Amino acid sequence: GGQVVNSYSRDVDVIEQRYGKESARMLGSMMFEGAAIIRDRIDRYAIDCDYRPGGIFAALNTRQMAHLQKQKTLWQQYGNHELELLDERGIRREVATERYVGGLLDR
């Protein structure tokens, strides 16, 4: 199994602090390019892999939810505009559990 996640092991703001704005912007755009290549190959070669686009970062508490709100703002600065903050009702619509207080949907 696997996941297509628009991310690195470090957030893009950390990359920017260490290597500069231009490197961060370039690497930020590469995150989306890599995912697009994978989706294209799934379609082109009719790969039967149960691919479901999007992913959710779930928050167990209000502190984690506040972090996700900051992440949304940060990721939008680097070109990810396919993000939706989910409140309790919204995350329950996506994930059938009452465990989470909210989340961030990355389409």
Give a quick precis of the structure.
This protein is of the alpha+beta class and 107 residues long. It is 51% helix and 13% strand. Strands 1-3-2 form a three-stranded antiparallel beta sheet.
Characterization of this structure:
This protein is an alpha+beta fold and 107 residues long. It is 51% helix and 13% strand. It contains four helices and three strands; from the N terminus they run ααβαβαβ. Strands 1-3-2 form a three-stranded antiparallel β-sheet. α1 (12-19) crosses α2. The protein is flat, with a radius of gyration of 15 Å.
What key attributes describe this structure?
single chain, 107 residues, alpha+beta
* Beta strands, count: 3
State the strand order across the main sheet.
1-3-2
Shape: flat
Overall SS class: alpha+beta
Radius of gyration: 15 Å
Uncertain stretches: none
Topology order in helix (H) and strand (E) letters: HHEHEHE
- Helix content bin: 40-55%
The N- to C-terminal Cα distance equals 19 Å
Mean pLDDT equals 89
Please give the count of helices: 4
How much of the residues is beta strand, in percent? Answer: 5-15%
Largest sheet: 3 strands, antiparallel
